[in-house]
Design a protein that fits this description.
The chain is mainly α. The chain contains ten helices and five strands. Helix 2 runs parallel beside helix 8. It is elongated, with a radius of gyration of 20 Å.
């Protein structure tokens, strides 16, 4: 039986993925980012996808607070230790537990009716995964709206971090031409799994109620600034929310990749286009590190409780969604 423990895995800050005629693992030297923000150099084994010629290679930039950001004449900022402690609360939270349940159910999908079981799940996931893009944009907006309230450099450095994951969703990476969007990659993954286009699923499926609910909750909370009136407090809430999204996504995509590979080996035995899941499994830890650094560049010390509330809010609603996804697969 699979065990989904709290992972200490590290993801590459530079990742290359593409076709390999031999279908073998590629071993790449890379700087890696752990959950706790430490950096080491290792050999990262990345499985190459033989079904697609797309190539993904990127280098993220992690902008930690500079001397200008930490000037003594400015209000104090939350510390690395405080933010790590908040991230650690997510390790034992409802979201991670719901992901364990989801992946356990995914690995138990019966061979004789896997398509019927997974179609409603993919209908929900299609909407859900795209819905994070407007959530990321809303977080950026809340930081931008502190113009005239927050420090010029602090605001700019927070945004310099935040823009990278959102741009990556549309195939834009540092020092690279624009590649496939993550929506295109998801459609490729779906086609290789089911054998027909994603558009066919969307045309004959009902509204994805669970994903729509989570989306409405995310936009309500982020754009509402956690109920705060002050622009900087609203931005602090949005930054905490963004960090929770990225931190939980590290668990989400890594476990999902492992579970779908297990399902393919056990049941499907297909030539799957894994790039969508590989890109996210390899990239979410660094996106969490980017969100971590965005927080450190602008959130005042007294806003630590606002960060905690935002992270807890997303953890709660994210857990409801993935528990529902597990329910769709259980009992078959």
């Amino acid at each position: 039986m699979a065990s989904f423990a709290v992972s200490s895995h590290k993801s590459a800050a530079k990742v290359q993925q593409g076709s390999n005629k031999a279908g073998k693992f590629q071993s790449l030297p890379s700087v890696v980012v752990s959950r706790r923000g430490r950096f080491t150099v290792t050999e990262r084994r990345v499985i190459a996808n033989v079904a697609s010629s797309i190539k993904e290679e990127w280098q993220v930039n992690l902008h930690s607070p500079s001397q200008e950001v930490l000037r003594a004449d400015l209000p104090g900022l939350v510390t690395v230790e405080e933010v790590r402690a908040l991230e650690a609360e997510l390790d034992g939270g409802a979201g991670v537990e719901a992901l364990r349940r989801f992946n356990k159910a995914l690995r138990a999908v019966p061979a004789d009716k896997w398509e019927a079981v997974l179609r409603p799940v993919f209908n929900e996931l299609c909407f859900n995964l795209e819905s994070f893009n407007p959530a990321f944009a809303a977080c950026l907006l809340q930081v931008q709206r502190t113009i005239g309230v927050s420090d010029y450099v602090r605001r700019d450095m927070a945004l310099k971090n935040l823009i990278q994951p959102l741009a990556g969703e549309y195939g834009m990476h540092n020092s690279q031409p624009q590649l496939k969007t993550h929506r295109e990659l998801f459609a490729d993954f779906f086609l290789s799994l089911f054998g027909y286009p994603l558009s066919q699923l969307l045309a004959d499926s009902p509204a994805p109620a669970a994903a729509q609910l989570l989306y409405s909750q995310m936009m309500r909370d982020i754009l509402g600034g956690g109920g705060h009136d002050n622009a900087l407090a609203q931005a602090s809430y949005a930054l905490g929310y963004n960090l929770a999204i990225e931190y939980l996504a590290d668990y989400e995509k890594t476990w999902m990749l492992d579970s779908f590979r297990d399902l393919n080996a056990r049941v499907l035995k297909k030539d799957i286009d894994w790039i969508f899941l590989e890109v996210h499994a390899e990239g979410e830890a660094e996106h969490a590190a980017i969100g971590h650094n965005a927080v450190l560049n602008i959130v005042p010390t007294e806003h630590a409780p606002i960060l905690r509330k935002a992270m807890a809010d997303h953890d709660r609603d994210f857990a409801v969604f993935y528990n529902r996804m597990a329910e769709l697969m259980e009992g078959h």
